[in-house]
Amino acid sequence: MRRLVSRKKALTLVKELDAFPKVPESYVETTASGGTVSLIAFTAMALLAFLEFFVYRDTWMQYEYEVDKDFSSKLRINIDITVAMRCQFVGADVLDLAETMVASDGLHYEPVTFDLSPQQRLWHRTLLMIQDRLREEHSLQDVIFKTVLKGSPTALPPREDSPSQSPAACRIHGHIYVNKVAGNFHITVGKAIPHPRGHAHLAALVSHDTYNFSHRIDHLSFGEEIPGIINPLDGTEKVCTDHNQMFQYFITIVPTKLNTYQISADTNQYSVTERERVINHAVGSHGVSGIFMKYDISSLMVKVTEQHMPLWRFLVRLCGIIGGIFSTTGMIHGMVGFLVDVVCCRFQLGVYKPREASQHIKSNTENPST
Questions:
Q1: CA–CA separation, 161 and 168 (whole Å)
Q2: I want to staple 127 with a disulfide (CB 3.0 to 4.6 A). Which of 232, 235, 282, 304 is the partner?
Q3: Could you give the maximum distance between any two Cα atoms of the chain, in Å?
Q4: CA distances from 41 to 36, 44, 48, 319, 327 (A)
Q5: What is the Cα–Cα distance from 194 to 22, expressed in whole angstroms?
Q6: Cα angle vertex 359, ends 345, 343, to 5°?
């Protein structure tokens, strides 16, 4: 018996703590305006919840910076450059900051035609348009990171027709591994030969009239080669105005760790500035004709991670949307109803009369003698 009494007391206490009291339906009054506001509120809730679901599905890229502590590994350079000279007249190699000549055994020399076919030219123009958009809107790089494996390949498509002329250009492509220090990758006249004080090129047997360092960079990247990533120099094309001309590219490499839902890789990003000039010793413009890419490696490393909204945050935002709209529309409906009631129903001339005054006037009309 005592247990039953204690249970009833506990149940009564729980009922008193009810924060959501129920109102009998007989006490509830429904109106057309309330139904209209409810319909608008439910429509807004459904629309915002639908849009919030797309926000939940979307991802964003988070950038973190830290000191790069890996100096012992090798740096891979991926190259695909076409030079408007015959392959026997040009040579490519790397000389690092310690004056160490790096063997270019991983590079291949392929005789090709410098002019592109119509399909290749269309691909090249499309790549240049993408490069222009990337320079104006840097946020597009995040889209490229997220769709790295879905994007189209950035390599030059194969030629669909047979060239009518004999190949007079040289395509230098492949990859080489260098020390992770600043260096100079260059393409100049003559094949490279080792030298006790550095290196040299056999350029004495090549006539100056054959010098033509017009070139097209189809691809240049550092680190692991990732399909779909567009690098700053991809699609660059330069045409010589003189036989003795030097093209210089000053590159700053930033080590990058890329972690997305599509791929996880250690690669590198880079920025570049360009300079070109004609070699003329008579006017003090000294140097060697060729293509020189001087690169330096940043001491900072960038970690790019694809982030996603957690489920609990999506549910909290969803509850905020539903509760906020429900409360706001209720307050607005009550406020508008009050204003309409005050302005239109109580203070119009001849409409608002106190109840006592109206009864007194009615009684006087019925008993005029009094």
A1: 17
A2: 235
A3: 140
A4: 9, 5, 11, 14, 10
A5: 93
A6: 10
Q: Give the amino acid at 59.
A: T
Question: In degrees, to the nearest 5, what angle opens at C-alpha 258 toward C-alphas 254 and 263?
Answer: 145
The per-residue pLDDT string of the chain (370 residues; one tens digit each, 9 = 90 and over) reads: 566 667 777 767 767 666 566 666 665 666 777 778 788 888 888 898 889 888 888 888 888 898 988 878 889 999 999 999 988 889 888 888 776 667 677 889 999 988 888 888 888 888 888 888 877 776 666 666 666 655 555 677 777 777 777 888 999 999 999 888 888 998 988 877 766 666 777 776 777 778 889 999 999 999 888 777 788 899 899 999 888 889 999 999 999 888 888 778 888 989 999 999 888 877 877 878 899 999 999 989 999 888 888 889 889 999 998 888 888 888 887 787 777 777 776 555 444 445 554 555 445 555 555 4
Residue 271: how many CA atoms within 13 Å on its side-chain side?
A: 4
What single-letter DSSP state applies at residue 365?
H
Q: Which pair of structure tokens corresponds to residue 310?
A: 């957690």
